[in-house]
Design goal:
heterodimer; A: 2 domains; 5-stranded mixed beta sheet; 10 helices; globular; B: mainly beta; Methylamine Dehydrogenase, Chain H; 4-stranded antiparallel beta sheet; disordered N terminus
Chain lengths: ~250, ~400
């Protein structure tokens, strides 16, 4: 069980007359609507639908890692784009069965890639595979494609049109077929998918994400800021500008 | 057996509650019944004053002003509040735009959201017909949930919406009374698809977006939306149920194609409406995460998560007072006593869904849509976390 935050929420002290009236009416209504089955407990629940609020949050154990450690700046990283010394690094925690990840890759990633082309941004992709085995298999295939210098092409193909593939579309044969369509060495890709190095790296990336709280995808780290979910592209452009500005002013 | 609470009680019928005190036919201001566009947008909520789940921290949050919990279909929420002596229903899309508004008398009004035979989402609002000194009757009218255009009605019904779905009954005579016999309407046409008679005979459990559930003396029966053809039957004896033990559930719908029905005072059954199978006969509540196609069932033993093939992903024991607040985006929000706890629904791990350093009233999702919008509760308001850009569309064509 996770630790409590120890900080109680501020319970609203002002409740409108209308809400109170509705809550009271709910009590009457609950008594009336469930003949023979109504308990005081159920009455309270109906009223709580308007008024109740939690006072604490049960959190998981705090991660040992910090946000900065997520950036590797490894020149041989097959899952990265952009110069290793780019002023801003975006670390993306994703999953190939996550529809919001597909949406983000389709709508926002191209805009981020413009900054990569300009030398201002480095993107490091990490899959956390919260959706299970098919995601992990696709992640290994994408990594193997990366070993042939084609991670981003393969990645884009997995999210073609901003849509995630079905679980069957992430089967072994489908992933190899996709590699063939992209002109990759399929025998090498199949071998690399199963290599100890690939398996270890995918597991390491996954653990990194989970340690940083990426239980839900997509999650992003940029300039020390965490972004969760497929937000509008402007949110990411603004976060990039802020991160770049903080580097230029020496704050980071 | 430990008693657990069932939660996420559907309060769409909250509006009906007013009946109990106001009494049908009371003098009220004349409402503007036909759906119309509103000039005013919804007020944006200052997120800095709320402790939002991280998933919603960057989303624009608006306050629809609803005093009822809302119902949702096809990207549109419907809720209501009392304003200047009338009930104002508003349909709000996931971008936070008010698509239309319609008013009804405070008395004998109710609403439900269901689906017509063409898959179109419908809002059904009830209304009262009054003479100068008496209630002449209650009617139901269906509107396209998105456009507000009238689809059918008004048709006479015995009373306000009782639910689940397009089910109506006369209100109880007093706080402890029973409602009258229930009548179900075909959401596609507004015609009667089922009607209880006083005393013996079939009882109507609910209308679930085109599927009518009734119980006769020996079976739970599903019918098509017109109530003409049986889709499947489940023997009551197979599960130890009796006709008297089954009843409509007050829980929110667990998801499309599923229904919860009450099987006793403390338990419910989770029914697969398409297959006519009982997924759980001990469920207290259930919910589906559309993103991962994961089903979560809360029963007297604990929480269970199942994948799309109904293979169990994980089970976890939880405290007796635990309830499901919402499920979506792979996050399962639980209420446990005075706390909220969030699990990754696929792994069962406790997730850090809130910024540990966050401040303000803890805001908990009560409904998360497949496209990432959500209804949130901050203890005093029903708030909408929107997706996409702020609305700019001129809807004056209504």
């Amino acid at each position: 069980m996770g630790a409590h935050t120890g900080r109680a929420a501020t319970r609203p002290r002002t409740v409108t007359v209308v809400v109170l009236a509705v809550a009271a009416l709910l009590v009457v209504f609950a008594l009336a609507m469930d003949p023979g089955e109504v308990s005081g407990e159920r009455v309270a629940e109906r009223a709580a639908a308007v008024e109740d609020a939690p006072t604490g949050i049960e959190q998981p154990a705090q991660p040992e890692s910090d946000v900065g450690s997520a950036e590797r700046h490894d020149p041989d990283d097959p899952l990265a784009a952009g110069p290793v010394d780019a002023p801003v690094t975006l670390v993306v925690f994703s999953d190939y069965q996550c529809p919001f990840c597909a949406q983000w890759s389709h709508e926002t990633l191209p805009l981020m890639m413009d900054e990569v082309e300009a030398g201002s941004l480095r993107i490091e992709w990490r899959d956390v595979n919260v959706y299970g085995a098919a995601s992990e298999r696709a992640s290994r295939a994408a990594y193997a494609a990366g070993l042939q210098g084609a991670f981003w092409e393969y990645h884009d193909a997995l999210y073609e049109g901003g849509e995630k593939r079905s679980e069957a579309g992430l089967g072994q044969d489908a992933l190899i077929t996709l590699a063939a369509e992209l002109g990759l060495d399929t025998e090498r890709l199949a071998t690399d998918m199963e290599s100890k190095e690939t398996v270890a790296q995918i597991a390491e990336n996954q653990q990194l994400g989970l340690d940083l709280g990426a239980f839900s995808t997509p999650m992003f780290l940029m300039g020390g800021q965490t972004l969760v979910g497929a937000q509008p592209s402007q949110v990411f452009l603004d976060a990039f500008e802020r991160a770049l500005a903080s580097v230029e002013t020496g704050e980071r | 057996m430990r008693r657990r609470r069932t939660a996420r009680a559907g309060v769409a019928a909250v509006v009906v509650v007013v009946v109990a005190l106001a009494g049908c036919g009371a003098t009220e201001p004349e409402p503007v019944r036909q759906p119309r566009a509103l000039e005013e947008g919804l007020p944006e909520v200052d997120r800095s004053g709320l402790r939002l789940p991280s998933s919603f921290e960057e989303q624009r949050v608006v306050d629809p002003g609803w005093e009822t919990t809302s119902e949702y279909a096809d990207g549109v929420f419907l809720g209501a509040r009392e304003q200047n002596g009338v009930l104002e229903f508003t349909a709000v899309d996931v971008q936070g735009e008010v698509l239309w508004a319609a008013q009804r008398p405070v008395s004998c009004s109710g609403f439900t959201v269901t689906t017509g035979i063409d898959g179109r989402a419908l809002a059904i609002l009830t209304d009262t017909e009054t003479t100068s000194d008496a209630l002449a009757g209650v009617t139901a009218t269906a509107y396209d949930l998105t456009t507000g255009h009238q689809v059918w009605g008004p048709v006479h019904v015995p009373g306000p919406s009782q639910g689940p779905g397009a089910v109506f009954a006369a209100p109880p005579d007093g706080p402890m009374g029973d409602t009258g016999p229930r009548t179900a309407l075909d959401p596609a046409t507004g015609r009667i698809s089922g009607a209880e008679s006083d005393g013996a005979g079939e009882r109507i459990l609910g209308e679930y977006r085109g599927t009518l559930l009734v119980v006769d003396e020996d079976a739970l029966v599903a019918r098509d939306s017109a109530g003409e053809h049986d889709l499947w039957r489940i023997s009551l004896a197979e599960y130890g149920w009796t006709a008297a033990s089954l009843g409509p559930s007050s829980s929110l719908s667990p998801g499309d194609g599923l229904a919860l029905i009450k099987t006793s005072g403390s338990t419910q059954a989770l029914i697969d409406l398409d297959k006519g199978t009982v997924l759980s006969d001990t469920a207290l509540d259930a919910a589906v995460d559309v993103a991962s196609n994961t089903l979560v069932v809360l029963d007297d033993v604990g929480l269970h998560a199942y994948d799309a093939g109904h293979e169990r992903l994980w089970s976890s024991s939880v405290a007796p007072e635990t309830t499901i607040a919402a499920l979506g985006g792979v996050f399962l929000y639980l209420r446990e006593g005075g706390n909220v706890r969030v699990h990754n629904v696929l792994t069962g791990d406790v997730a850090q869904a809130y910024d540990p350093e966050g401040r303000g009233p803890i805001t908990v999702p009560t409904q998360i849509t497949s496209n990432g919008a959500a209804m949130l509760g901050d203890g005093r308001r029903h708030l909408l976390a929107t997706i996409g850009n702020a609305p700019t569309t001129d809807r004056s064509s209504l």
